[in-house]
Amino acid sequence: MDISVVIPLYNEEESLPELFAWIQRVMDTNRFSYEVIFVNDGSTDHSWQVIEKLRSESDKVKGIKFRRNYGKSPALYCGFEKAQGDVVITMDADLQDSPDEIPELYRMITEDGYDLVSGYKQKRYDPLSKTIPTKLFNATARAVSGIKNLHDFNCGLKAYRRDVVKNIEVYGEMHRYIPYLAKNAGFPKIAEKVVHHQARKFGKTKFGGLNRFFNGYLDLITLWFLSKFGIKPMHFFGFMGSLMFILGFISVIIIGANKLYALSHGLPYILITDSPYFYLALTLMILGTQLFLAGFIGELIARNAPERNNYKIEKEF
């Protein structure tokens, strides 16, 4: 199979028939063999009934229905598991991503040899509450990830070599950082393509700008830490803990040596326990011990991590 199109959605009943018809037209024109996987993320409207109707009209349609709303990352994770195409395309269900971009995305993966191609919505039709946080977030993501050629990490329209989606784990809200996940998994050939961004036709956006801004930074810090120390947390916590303990221990020795010097030379002195520096040194030693133990416990957890992606699926076809 040439292409799998994975579409996570939440309350998008109005746009689904038009979106599938558009995808179908593009695929048939280019003679692609394909499947379209709709992942219904706990929608409260009639989205699933629409997907079932599309399925009755075409065997190209596949569907996954979550029992409740989990989020975009879990939806992509389950869609990636089900995908069978050589190239996997992801797009949003709100008609803001154009299926007309699919042939060129497919070509860049199959002919140019890229592992991942991310869309870049150079001209956007989003409100300022969404675009300004997005620009700040993307600038930070470029600096932290080292992927300098991407302007829009969170663009829903992306193309992947099949091996990429089968070797990355998208959980929590890590869909924003799939290029970073791919790079860390050993897929460094990442490109960008300017894509057409359309104004939303039905309903309103499901994502708030400020909320996405703050959550995005928290996720970026988490991913950076995991990529650096996720397998060996002792390298971070053990180092920091040992450093703090040693500094505290040396400080206690200096305080004690100062008192012994004062005693031996008949100089005035104060009790060690009356010195504020003693308590600062003691605090450093205690914190250092705790950090060291945190690193040790982290090592144990890393070796015995339970499954993260366990989502309740109500229906699937």
TrEMBL record:
SUPFAM superfamilies: Nucleotide-diphospho-sugar transferases. One of its GO terms (cellular component) is plasma membrane. GO terms for biological process: lipopolysaccharide biosynthetic process. Keywords: Cell membrane, Glycosyltransferase, Lipopolysaccharide biosynthesis, Membrane, Transferase, Transmembrane, Transmembrane helix. The keyword Acyltransferase does not apply. The chain crosses the membrane at residues 236-257, 277-302. One of its GO terms (molecular function) is undecaprenyl-phosphate 4-deoxy-4-formamido-L-arabinose transferase activity. Residues 4-167 form the Glycosyltransferase 2-like domain. PANTHER family: UNDECAPRENYL-PHOSPHATE 4-DEOXY-4-FORMAMIDO-L-ARABINOSE TRANSFERASE (PTHR48090:SF3), UNDECAPRENYL-PHOSPHATE 4-DEOXY-4-FORMAMIDO-L-ARABINOSE TRANSFERASE-RELATED (PTHR48090). This is Glycosyltransferase. It comes from Phocaeicola sartorii.
